[in-house]
User: What shape does this take?
Amino acid sequence: MIEIYPMEQGEEREAYELVVRTFHAHVAPVYSKNGVAKFLGMLSPDGLSDMRTGEDSFILVAGDRQSILGVVSVINENHIALLFVDPDHQQTGIGKNLIERAITECSNRNPALSAITVSSSPNSKAFYEGVGFEAQGGEVDEDGMRFTPMRKKLAR
Assistant: This one.
């Protein structure tokens, strides 16, 4: 049974490896070499640990307590920084469930929150649109990292 729960101490390495593996399979092919290096340079198990324990950030994982199948991290209590689902488990609802739980957590932390944002990679834009996000302009290329700023208004 797959459940979603806050990433626990000691799960940083497994979550990091999932993100890197999925990034290489789906995102790196549409990034420049500089973009790949920049993304990977911003990511580390220690960085995930900091996000896990941050005052305005958190990480949720989806898994069966034996293995992690998905990861979502939120920073600034309103911005999805990472969302990765194991390639073998994509299109099973894990990503959608992680987003829903992340939004619930953001709303619980800040009941006045009116929107959630994400910088969607090109291959994830349709997914985010499918869960209610809207593009806030065109695609941006920041040192080879391609993304579309997106926003989801929250019902109040």
